[in-house]
Amino acid sequence: MVVKRVLILTFILLMVSLSPSLPFSTSGKAQEYSTSWVDATFEFRFLNGTHLDLKLKLDVHNMTVYNRIYGADEIREMYHQGEGAAFRAKIFDYSIEVLDKVFDNCKINLGIPYEDSSTLNIPKDSDLYNPPLTFYIDGNVTLSSNFFGSDIENIQDFVNGLLDIGARIRYDFSFFAPPLWNISYVFKIPDYLSVKEINRGDISIDGKEVVWKIQNHNGKDGKVRDGYLVIEKVNPTSYFEEESINANITFDMSEIETTLLEVSLDIKSLDVSNVVSFPDFVDGIQFLPSDGIRLLIENGLISLDDLQSLLEDKWLKFERDFISSLGKNITFDVYVDANTTTNCSQPYNTSYMDTDPPLVVKGTGKIEKLLDNISTRAVLGIIYSGGNVRINKDLIDLSKLEYPFEAKIILPYGENYSWNRSEDLNISLSYDFALNYTTEKKERLVEIYVKDINLDLLDIVTGKSNVVSRLDIRDDLIIYRIHAHSLLSLPDWIDLEIINSDLFRLLIEEGLLDAELDGFLKERLNLSNDLMVSLVKQNNLKTYLDEKTFEESLSWDRDIKKMSDEKPISIPFFSTVTKKSKFSFSIIPFSFTIMNESFDCFSVPGENVTYRFIFPKGVEVKFNDSLGRCKGGVLDDGRKYIEIKFFENDGLVATTVYYSLRLSPLMIILLFLPIIIMILVIVIIVSILVLMGRRRKLRPKVPEYREISDEQTSNFRQ
Predict the structure, then answer these.
(1) CA-based angle 306:312:314, to the nearest 5?
(2) C-alpha distances out from residue 198 to 114, 206, 235, 646, 658, Å
(3) Which one, 285, 485, 635, 698, has the greatest CB density within 10 A?
(4) How far apart are CA 560 and CA 384, in angstroms?
(5) Which of 596, 624, 601 is nearest to 475 (CA)?
(6) Whole-number Å distance between alpha carbons of 449 and 469
(7) What is the per-residue DSSP string for 261-296?
């Protein structure tokens, strides 16, 4: 017990010691309770759940001061003689003794007693004890943990905080009256509080005053009367009849490569009945706001482990519902935000217990394919290419979530789209600064390289005059942009008319063209083959895709924010054929001419088509065509070419290019060089044979030798 009375008592006793006229005696044994007859009213007014203002009114009929009983008239007489300090000191002690018994171990502050001046000027009569002399004492009481039968250290915050979240607080009293005392204990209830229940007391009609009366005027011993009072706040700041949990869900596409999923499970109120046992003086509360949870943590009524377990249960339920709704396999990294629990800068305000901040469980994860089966990168590429993406609850379904939610999508260009459980998801994602295309842009370059010209020696042997040329044909389809429907089938929630070359590459990278690309290339291969067959008038032509060049054209800067057709896609096809041509040759003048050659060229609707015939160095070319579109030119390396163009709006157009070639003397020599070499070889061989025949005729005759028999040999020896 803390009592601010030392200075007060010192002051009063000092005054008593300076009053020699008082017939006090300091000898003799003091009684347990000095004889006194007092009618008192102890009035208490709740300032909050643990702090009460008090005003004591004590009508003193008689009082024992140092073993002498003074009636009211005698006390007044002593007061007129200026000797009232001892009586005030005694009244102070009486009051403290009574309050100490009612508010055991509580902090009691009492002021200096003061008299009701109207009761000091009553004349003395035959009744020494009546009318009484009235004293007043002002003060306050701060209730302690011991009063509530609890060991909670910060009981003031605990009680006041619980009152502000709708709890009912019970106050148990053992009201006391000393012998010969009558005391009325009056509790004034402010408007913001209401009495829920009382025991053995009387309550006023308006419910704002509760009184317990103890009559002990004839008693020889102290009298105790038990009673209790239950109060609650009329309008608590927070009162929940159920859990309040909200989910804040963010689908963040700003990283482009994937969708970052951020979930904040905001727990505003929580059912703690399974893990918290409230003290007996607390009732009527099951669902606590976040401030209340922090209050319990600080006062040791809920452990961090128990809280962690509760919050994890709430998260697991949300996670199951969320994954089931989206139909995606998501792995979350989950943690409880300590800044909303133990590290909260302002855990609670006992006069305003609210849900700010809520308890927060955070989870993060990644989704590669948020919308249907299309990657985030592909979706953003479509948007940055001028497409429109419509998202509804069929694409992002959160209908299975039990908790209310606020969800939003964040796009890389800063646009945010939000929705919640009370409104259907129906948003359209687009980019205002995207390059919008309305038409296709495709070009085709068909190049025919005359690689070499050689005499057909077999034909020459049979009397024909033909040359054989090897032709390398290359058909390069160059796509800047193309109609989306001609490349793939997009889902109905994507509006995209034109696919530019960057988006073409992106769709290949993201696997959206896995099923369609082979068919697309095959269709282009067949068209290229038809063009080449018509061009060189040879059936059974083998045409191939230049895969290396095609793959090289798929490389790009991968900047999805700048999707354009600046760098086109190249789809090159090639083939090689041989072609026979008739020629005329004259020595005077020295010339070699290939005449009456032609190629049939066709337009391709919707494409700008260029045919280019490239000839070896040293060849003079003359040409014309039926449309008069042919043009000639010279490449940087000196080779001459013929070129004819068709435009995308020409429709179906065809023309035949006629040309003749005149070879230079050097080319003629090189052309006939095999024959010349062959003739020289034959001449050399014949010459060698003739020379060998002549040498055989000029050689002298060799003598004939014959064999001699042994008989003839012996004759010679004789």
Answers:
(1) 110
(2) 33, 14, 20, 103, 119
(3) 285
(4) 7
(5) 601
(6) 10
(7) EEEEEEEEEEE-TTT----TTEES--EEEHHHHHHH
Q: Judging by beta carbons within 10 Å of its beta carbon (0-12, 13-18, 19+), is residue 112 exposed, middle or buried?
A: middle
Question: If DSSP codes are grouped into helix, strand and coil, which group holds residue 169?
Answer: strand
The DSSP line for 409-478 is EE-TTS-EEEEETTS--EEEE--TTS----S-EEEEEEEEEEEEEEE-HHHHHTT--EEEEEEEEEEEEE
Round to whole Å and give the CA distance between 333 and 253. Answer: 18
SS3 533: helix
Q: CB–CB of 103/56 below 8 Å?
A: no
HSE at residue 317, side-chain half, CA atoms within 13 A, is 12
> In terms of residues, how long is the chain?
718
Residues 6 or more apart in contact with residue 275 via CB below 8 angstroms? 302, 306, 307, 309, 310
- Judge whether 661 and 682 are in contact, CB under 8 Å: no
Residue 332 near residue 282 (C-beta atoms within 8 A): no
DSSP characters over 204-233:
-TTS-EEEEEEEETT-SS-EEEEEEEEEEE
Task: Please give the helix or strand (H or E) that residue 378 lies within, else none.
Answer: helix 376-384
For residues 611, 616, 622, 625, the Cα torsion angle rounded to the nearest 10 degrees is -10
Model confidence at 19: pLDDT above 50: no
Peptide bond into 132 cis (omega under 30): no
Pick from 408, 95, 394: nearest CA to 251: 408
**Rounded distance between C-alpha atoms, residue 470 and residue 449, angstroms:** 8
Instruction: Answer for the pair 8, 112: CB distance below 8 angstroms, yes or no.
Output: yes
Q: Could you tell me what percentage of the chain is helix, strand and coil, using 3-state DSSP and rounding each to the nearest 5?
A: 25, 35, 40
CB atoms within 10 A of CB 52: 21
Q: State how far the Cα of 377 lies from the Cα of 512, in Å rounded to an integer.
A: 11
CA 178-184-190 angle, to 5 degrees, is 135
- Calculate mean pLDDT across residues 397-421: 91
Q: How far apart are CA 306 and CA 322, in angstroms?
A: 24
Mean pLDDT of the chain: 88
Q: What is the mean pLDDT of residues 544-573?
A: 94
- Name the helix (H) or strand (E) containing 680: helix 665-698
pLDDT digit string, tens, across residues 331-344 = 999 999 999 998 99
In the numeric block, which tokens belong to residue 369? 């394919």
Q: Using alpha carbons only, what angle is made at residue 346 by residues 408 and 150, rounded to the nearest 5 degrees? A: 125
DSSP assigned state of 340 = G
54-78 core/surface letters (b: 16 or more CB in 10 A; e: else): bbbbbbbbbbbbbeeebbbbbbbeb
Whole-angstrom Cα distance, residue 654 to residue 400? 63
Residue 318 CB contacts under 8 Å (≥ 6 apart), including other chains: 245, 247, 263, 265, 401, 402, 403
Convert the pLDDT of each residue in 236-288 to its tens digit. 999 999 999 999 999 999 999 999 999 999 999 999 999 999 999 999 999 99
Token reading at 466: 């033909």
pTM: 0.76
48, HSE (Cβ side, Cα atoms, 13 Å): 18
